[in-house]
């Protein structure tokens, strides 16, 4: 068989053993056998070969018996005498041929016995769960990522291996039931290949006119989705829970093989029994999921007789349920601490394919020094999920050499040595010049599609110019326009940040030059405090709440000469506030001329609406509260992790008259409540409730009305913000009420139907409601759809087909088929909707 994986593995036992055994597991043809099990005979300790058959195991005995097994091969037992510090031993497994008649009888007996044993284990699950409900421990973690580069000329040929990322940390970890986690990092080191960049992937199409929240500019947690061991929460696999929420591995919660309803989802087989070196009688239970498309485990459990507790496990997750990874295995061993069954070592072995290249990952974790005195921890203790000691990032190589509880692999040693040697070089002027030169290098594709950037590491600034594709605006105000935008960012030694955003916009048909410049200065990175201003003469939108067609229409444009100043900060954890003051001179663009050829394109270029020129002084106060927001502080910067609770928004706007000839005089409020909830294996629900009203309106112009966008005819816009079958743009100068929801079942039903589950389709339902009392208008919508996940390299998105129906008091009930695209933001771990 041909294997598309590369060199990486991890060991199941990570003590400082003096003997190392390593080699390859092969079949009779000399081909590697991926993910073969290698364990010490009569123990539950061992490891798993990586995807190209390489393994490494550490042990402190001079003589051992290796038991190697893999599906479709005969088990092999090798007695080894370990004479050297590092011993090389390759293993060849023979094909296993079975007679069908024997399988039926033996399989039935093993299945019945396996079910009988697991019933006793599951009966004790609540007890084990309680034992793991609150503790602290020391945690050491080492994660590595390596890429194999494929030969573009010879199929399946590997021409090289490339270390990409090693992550190593040591912490005091805290855990409490209901998934409360905290890490106090004593040491933290991220060995990155400077040629590799892991920023997560954030792709979206915004066509719904939704406004950004005031917290959108804060620093949020993200990183390399392929090396997911940023803290104890990421590597905590508690199979004593009924369902395991592992969002960095798969989108759905995973049903535990120890869950109360485990027999609905799993078959259990007694594979074998043995007596370990401590004279314990061990049952080796094979776990097989009944549904291959569901988020379920497969693999092996090792059960202690009479006690019916887990000694260790080697489990994989159904590959079709994984978000990024092609295959992932989790190996964990337990120890008895004060009568409690607690994890001692954990190991993740996985691989992912990206284009022609394959990446192999390994994460190893060891726990010790368990303590159980967490009763006095206050609720606020758990909000700051990570704390870094002052010198956590300054530990030298001697510290790490003394702290590592296991032997590094050869490529890990080389990579760590290279990175340690490169630290001083990376801080040198020569390196900065070379690095900047590489990043500032121009290419044709960058100029056309990504823009032109310039970085100066000495002065810590970045400069960016918009790409050519964004500079040419064929359907702008007055026809063809040329628009050039620029971003400048300067970071100071105290972590203060200055940003500038100038823009020029020239229309050739009317020979009109417009421009705008915005700037902000963030001077408190712990509270995201910044001041900002914006000034310019520009063609602005009457309302940004428009469908695709209305975005281009002149009837949705106004000339806006304005100046705005504002201030934003975090008042207390999770409570953001922003105030802004805008002075604006607004004027109709009826004097703008358009080329005649534009009138024939799509019929979208309606005439701009005339209105008297007026001036407005608008004050806006925004508040946004994230209940019990979790965060951590790293290098004097606060990183936000989000909240599982609803988010509350409040906005107040006031038009103040008689200030430099301003006329607008009104008061407006809007309240929003949004929530995202994971409904166990039934999927996830996203809702938004909006209420708004004008409290008084002595002088209220059309531009300040509340607008509701016309729906796109066939495009399924973001259903949390918009309606799908609204046939005209509505506005109101009074009160309104809107409610939207969408529920993704994520294949809960279809994954259980034979053959249909091969299509990997996911079910979605949702609906919306809009009520405008003064217009006596009410509309209700419902929709159902099928979605399919697709992936192009690191970009993941869902392509969906939906049937939408609506009914209102002004129109007859109708329905329409629509198509939508939903993008996954791997940086924040969220879908667009």
In short:
The protein is mainly β.
Structural description of this entry:
This protein has 833 residues and is mainly β. Among the domains are: 1-97, Immunoglobulin-like (Sandwich), CATH 2.60.40; 101-196 and 223-421, no CATH class; 708-833, no CATH class. It is built from ten helices and 44 strands. It has a 19-stranded antiparallel beta sheet that branches. A 13-stranded mixed beta sheet has the order 14-15-16-17-18-19-20-9-10-11-21-32-33. Strands 1, 4, 7 and 8 form a four-stranded mixed beta sheet that branches. The longest helix has 24 residues, at 100-123. The chain is elongated.
Structural class: mainly beta
Radius of gyration: 31 Å
Shape: elongated
Number of beta strands: 44
Average pLDDT, all residues: 82
- Uncertain segments of ≥5 residues (pLDDT<50)? 1-17, 99-107, 151-160, 193-207
Task: Please describe the structure with a list of short key phrases separated by commas or semicolons.
Immunoglobulin-like; single chain; 19-stranded antiparallel sheet; 833 residues; mainly beta; 11% helix; disordered N terminus; 44 strands; elongated
SSE layout:
Blueprint: E1 19-27, E2 37-40, E3 46-48, E4 54-59, E5 63-69, E6 76-81, E7 86-88, E8 91-93, H1 100-123, H2 125-131, E9 134-150, E10 158-176, E11 180-192, H3 232-235, E12 243-244, E13 254-255, H4 262-265, E14 266-275, E15 281-289, E16 297-304, E17 310-317, E18 327-337, E19 340-354, E20 357-371, E21 384-388, H5 397-403, H6 410-426, H7 429-439, H8 444-450, E22 452-456, E23 461-465, H9 468-471, E24 472-476, E25 479-491, E26 497-507, E27 512-524, E28 529-541, H10 548-552, E29 557-572, E30 575-587, E31 614-626, E32 630-634, E33 637-642, E34 647-655, E35 665-678, E36 684-699, E37 706-708, E38 730-732, E39 736-744, E40 761-772, E41 777-792, E42 795-808, E43 814-825, E44 830-831
Parallel strand pairs: 1-7, 1-8, 11-21, 21-32
Antiparallel strand pairs: 1-4, 2-3, 2-5, 5-6, 9-10, 9-20, 10-11, 12-13, 14-15, 15-16, 16-17, 17-18, 18-19, 19-20, 22-23, 23-25, 24-25, 25-26, 26-27, 27-28, 28-29, 29-30, 30-31, 31-34, 32-33, 34-35, 35-36, 36-39, 37-38, 39-40, 40-41, 41-42, 42-43, 43-44
């Amino acid at each position: 068989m041909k294997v598309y994986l590369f060199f990486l593995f991890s060991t199941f036992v990570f003590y400082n053993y003096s003997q190392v055994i390593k080699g390859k597991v092969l079949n009779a043809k000399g081909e590697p056998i991926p993910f073969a099990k290698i364990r010490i005979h009569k123990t539950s300790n061992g490891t798993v070969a990586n995807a190209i058959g390489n393994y490494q195991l550490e042990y402190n005995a001079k003589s051992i018996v290796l038991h190697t097994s893999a599906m479709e091969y005969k088990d092999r037992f090798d007695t080894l005498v370990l004479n050297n510090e590092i011993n090389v031993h390759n293993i060849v497994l023979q094909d296993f041929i079975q007679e069908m008649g024997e399988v039926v009888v033996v399989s039935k007996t093993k299945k019945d016995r396996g079910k009988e044993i697991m019933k006793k284990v599951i009966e004790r699950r609540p007890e084990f769960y309680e034992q793991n409900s609150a503790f602290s421990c020391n945690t050491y973690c080492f994660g590595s990522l390596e890429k194999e580069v494929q030969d573009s000329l010879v199929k399946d040929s590997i021409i090289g291996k490339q270390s990409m990322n090693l992550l190593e940390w040591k912490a005091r970890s805290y855990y409490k039931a209901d998934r409360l986690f905290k890490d106090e990092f004593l040491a933290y080191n991220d060995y990155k290949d400077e040629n590799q960049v892991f920023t997560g992937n954030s792709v979206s199409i915004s066509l719904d006119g939704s406004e950004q929240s005031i917290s959108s500019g804060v620093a949020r947690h993200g990183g390399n989705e392929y090396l997911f061991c940023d803290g104890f929460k990421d590597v905590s696999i508690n199979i004593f829970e009924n369902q395991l929420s592992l969002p960095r591995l798969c989108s759905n919660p995973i049903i535990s093989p120890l869950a109360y309803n485990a027999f609905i989802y799993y078959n259990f087989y007694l594979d074998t029994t043995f007596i370990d070196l401590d004279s314990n009688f061990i049952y080796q239970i094979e776990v097989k999921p009944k549904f291959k498309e569901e988020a379920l485990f497969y693999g092996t459990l090792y059960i202690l007789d009479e006690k019916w507790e887990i000694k260790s496990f080697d489990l994989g997750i159904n590959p079709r349920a994984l978000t990024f990874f092609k295959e992932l295995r989790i190996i964990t061993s337990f120890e008895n601490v004060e009568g409690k069954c607690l994890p001692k070592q954990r190991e993740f072995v996985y691989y992912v394919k990206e284009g022609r290249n394959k990446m192999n990952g390994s994460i190893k974790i060891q726990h010790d020094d368990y303590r159980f005195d967490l009763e006095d921890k206050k609720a606020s203790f758990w909000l700051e999920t990570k704390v870094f000691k002052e010198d956590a990032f300054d530990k030298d190589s001697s510290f790490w050499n003394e702290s590592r509880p296991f032997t590094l692999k050869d490529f890990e040693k080389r990579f760590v040595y290279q990175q340690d040697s490169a630290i001083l070089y990376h801080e040198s002027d020569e390196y900065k010049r070379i690095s900047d030169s590489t990043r500032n290098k121009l290419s044709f594709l960058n100029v056309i599609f990504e823009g032109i950037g310039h970085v100066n590491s000495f002065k810590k600034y970045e400069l960016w110019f918009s790409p050519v594709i964004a500079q040419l605006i064929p359907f702008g105000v007055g026809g063809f326009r040329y628009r050039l935008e620029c971003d400048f960012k300067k970071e100071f030694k105290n972590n203060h940040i200055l940003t500038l955003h100038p823009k020029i916009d020239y229309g050739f048909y009317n020979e009109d030059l417009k421009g705008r410049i915005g700037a902000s200065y963030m001077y408190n990175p712990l509270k995201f405090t910044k001041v900002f201003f914006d000034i310019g003469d520009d063609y602005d939108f009457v309302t940004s709440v428009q469908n695709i067609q209305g975005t281009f229409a002149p009837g949705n444009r106004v000339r806006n000469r304005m100046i705005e100043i504002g201030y934003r900060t975090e008042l207390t954890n999770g409570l953001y506030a922003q105030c802004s003051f805008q002075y604006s001179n607004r004027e109709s663009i009826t004097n703008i001329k358009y080329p005649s050829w534009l009138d024939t394109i799509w019929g979208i270029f309606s005439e701009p609406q005339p209105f008297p020129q007026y001036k407005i002084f608008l004050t806006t106060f925004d508040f946004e509260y994230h209940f019990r927001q979790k965060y951590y502080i790293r290098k004097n910067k606060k990183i936000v992790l989000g909240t599982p609770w609803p988010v509350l928004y409040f906005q107040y706007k006031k038009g103040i008259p008689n200030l430099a000839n301003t006329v607008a005089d009104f008061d407006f409020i809007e309240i929003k409540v949004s929530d995202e909830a994971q409904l166990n294996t039934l999927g996830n629900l996203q809702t938004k409730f909006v209420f708004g009203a004008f409290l008084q309106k002595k002088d209220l112009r059309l531009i300040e009305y509340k607008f509701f966008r016309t729906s796109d005819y066939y495009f399924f816009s973001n259903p949390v913000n918009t309606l799908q079958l609204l046939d005209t743009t509505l506005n109101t100068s009074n009160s309104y009420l809107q409610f939207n929801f969408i529920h993704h079942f994520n294949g809960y039903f279809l994954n259980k139907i034979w053959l249909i589950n091969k299509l990997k389709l996911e079910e979605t339902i949702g609906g919306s409601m809009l009520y405008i009392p003064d217009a006596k208008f009410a509309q209700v919508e419902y929709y159902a759809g099928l979605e399919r996940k697709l992936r192009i390299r690191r970009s993941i998105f869902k392509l969906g087909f939906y049937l939408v129906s609506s009914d209102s008091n002004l129109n007859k009930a109708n329905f329409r088929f629509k198509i939508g695209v939903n993008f996954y933001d791997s940086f924040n771990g969220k879908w667009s909707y």
